[in-house]
Amino acid sequence: MVKFDHIIHYVNQLKEVEEDPVLPIHSGGRHERFGTANLLSYFDYRYVEYLAIEDKEAFCTHLEEGGGSFAATIDTLDYEEGFIRYALSTDDIKGLAERFLARGFTVHGPVEMERVTKGEAISWKLLYVGSGAEIFPFFIQWDEPEQDRMKRIEAFRGKSPHPAITIRQEVADIHVWEAFYDVLGIWEGEIDSRTRVELSQNEKPSITLEVGMDGESAIYKGAIYKFI
Length: 228
Hints:
By secondary structure, the protein is an alpha+beta fold. It has helices at residues 14-19, 56-64, 70-76, 93-102, 146-157, 174-183; strands at 3-10, 27-31, 36-42, 47-53, 82-89, 106-117, 120-131, 134-135, 138-142, 165-171, 190-192, 195-201, 206-211, 218-220, 223-227.
């Protein structure tokens, strides 16, 4: 029902990422309405999004609007660089909202989004799910047909390695997280055929991205990357 889509790595300066990346940079764009900009590193259809605040006034205005958006996550985490959240893709975002509401979770959205990349507008919808102070993955439904999106990615990504990815995540309340994934029918950590999530409990939440490809493992701008 869902697939892993991307993980957000919040950074202070995109220029520093572009000049000294831990992964190849393939594209980027601006969320003009929210005052943020990004650079994207694709593995295949899955990717790392390096996100930075570009327009503080627009960002603060969006923050004041409320909701469980990525802007609120950046603020909640005190603007510290690192992995802040990841997205799971779906083709039934409204149905997911109804399912989470029925199970006692709060929801915000679907929210219409748009990114402008080299003059081309790409749009999608986002859904945020909440329970207490936990920062769950959010959901994305692309407006672009999947076949067209894959062709567009392949045009600049080239041949895809399709690596196995594991998200190792320490969370404050593992039982609430298990309930979250239970709504999705995920009990053994397998998000999709190439992506897993491994949960453990810790008072201080953290995320480690483990990728099955060549690379030099590092703590890069507050985020832990492991290449195996």
